[in-house]
Write a structure and sequence with these properties.
The chain has helices at residues 13-28, 44-50, 53-65, 70-77, 81-93, and strands at residues 5-10, 39-41, 98-101, 109-112, 117-122. It has 124 residues and is an alpha/beta fold. The protein has a 3-stranded parallel beta sheet. Strands 3-4 form a two-stranded antiparallel sheet. Helix 1 links the parallel strand 1 (5-10) and strand 2 (39-41). Helix 4 (70-77) packs across helix 5. The longest helix has 16 residues, at 13-28. The radius of gyration is 18 Å and the shape is elongated. The model has no long low-confidence stretch (mean pLDDT 87).
């Protein structure tokens, strides 16, 4: 079985722009450019703000327990539903959580993690 992973990296804004310029030049020259997928933060401080211990625990619980709603996730984490909902919204925004909506009696939002591993890459 192939392990699905998400790549997270630390890349300065200048490095990001330099990579984009390089890709554009290669495209203009007729070269094929491989699409690079990942989530990048400008520095380690920004990374630490984004992936706190509580958010990493949340990702683990979503993957292992597969809660059927944000409310159930909050109960599993023993946290306030509003705070969990805010963390889920942020993790969705940066691409680490997907949300599925159900059409049962009452609409539910189910958090989903579609990977097994987070691969952190830091250039030196």
């Amino acid at each position: 079985m192939r392990v699905k992973k998400v790549k997270i990296g630390i890349k300065s804004f200048e490095d990001f722009l330099e990579g984009a310029k390089d890709a554009m030049k290669r495209l203009e020259g007729g070269e094929k450019v491989k699409k690079q997928r990942g989530i990048y933060f400008e520095n380690l401080k920004a990374f630490r703000r984004a992936l706190t211990e509580k958010r990493l625990e949340m990702l683990h619980v979503i993957k292992e327990k597969r809660p059927k709603s944000i409310y159930e996730l909050a109960k599993l984490l023993n946290r306030n539903t509003k705070n969990v909902s805010q963390d889920i919204a942020y993790l969705r925004e940066i691409g680490l959580v997907e949300l599925k909506r159900t059409e049962e009696k009452r609409e539910r939002i189910i958090p989903f993690v579609g990977y097994e591993l987070i691969d952190l890459q830091i250039a030196v």
